[in-house]
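User: Sequence recovery, please. Input:
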């Protein structure tokens, strides 16, 4: 359920922040979260044609590519040899790793790319480097949670590279129309997610309602 809701939130961010014509995805981390990140990105952007996947464990990435090609009916899903190759030419970059250190360099980013960074969740670890944060319009799932947990933002703040004011918005502000999402074809957007209990609660309610409708499960007294 966590993987589904984390994918769904990222898909929502992609819907509001990625370019409408996004065709190429670069995915870092081919574990449990990587699968729903990729699935959600394809739901949000049916224009997607290719995906390059990269994982420190190449055999895991190859197995992932085989399974996801079948599931998502991708014309092209390939395993990248390097992090730089994964970034090159990508319109959407997804990071869903357990890495404590940045998985690519901000200097490699093309204009107009959208990044969803969902992997890191402690103040000392980050998947994204300071240059990436500096270049991006930063949108958080929740600002206070990210300032407590997201090393991707906390480390550049502690370095003095950015202040909290560099964070543009929460995703909810964009979805509700209080703030605009992408404003040009060339801006770089970033959605940083650390995960929120409200996302679990909302997803659990969907599962519960669906189970009731399908007459699955058993009633218990609490
Ligand atoms: N933001 C959220 O709401 C949310 C929700 C759930 C999980 N997470 C986090 O997402 C991360 C991934 O979770 P998971 O369950 O998919 O883990 P997983 O172990 O199934 O997969 C992680 C993959 O990342 C790969 N990896 C590690 N370092 C890498 C690097 N530098 N480059 C490329 N690949 C690398 C590993 O080899 C592994 O295959 C975890 O840190 C988890 O805590 C976040």
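Assistant: Recovered sequence (222 residues):
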């Amino acid at each position: 359920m966590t993987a589904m809701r984390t994918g769904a939130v990222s898909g929502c961010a992609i819907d509001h922040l990625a370019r409408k014509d996004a065709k190429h995805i670069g995915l870092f981390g081919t574990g449990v979260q990587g699968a729903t990140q990729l699935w959600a990105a394809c739901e949000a952007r049916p224009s997607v044609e290719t995906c390059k996947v990269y994982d420190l464990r190449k055999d895991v990435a190859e197995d992932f590519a085989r399974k996801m090609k079948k599931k998502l009916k991708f014309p092209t899903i390939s395993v990248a040899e390097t992090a730089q190759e994964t970034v090159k030419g990508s319109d959407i970059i997804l990071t869903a790793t357990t890495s404590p250190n940045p998985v690519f360099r901000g200097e490699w980013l093309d204009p107009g790319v959208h990044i969803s960074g969902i992997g890191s969740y402690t103040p000392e670890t980050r998947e994204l480097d300071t240059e990436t944060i500096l270049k991006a319009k930063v949108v958080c799932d929740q600002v206070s949670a990210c300032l407590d947990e997201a090393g991707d933002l906390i480390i550049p703040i502690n370095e003095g590279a950015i202040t909290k004011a560099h964070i543009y918005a929460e995703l909810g502000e964009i979805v509700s129309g209080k703030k605009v999402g992408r404003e040009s074809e060339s801006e770089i957007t970033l959605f940083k997610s650390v995960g929120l209990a409200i996302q679990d609660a909302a997803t659990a309610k969907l599962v519960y309602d669906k189970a009731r409708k399908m007459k699955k499960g058993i009633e218990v007294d609490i």
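The longest strand covers residues 24-28.
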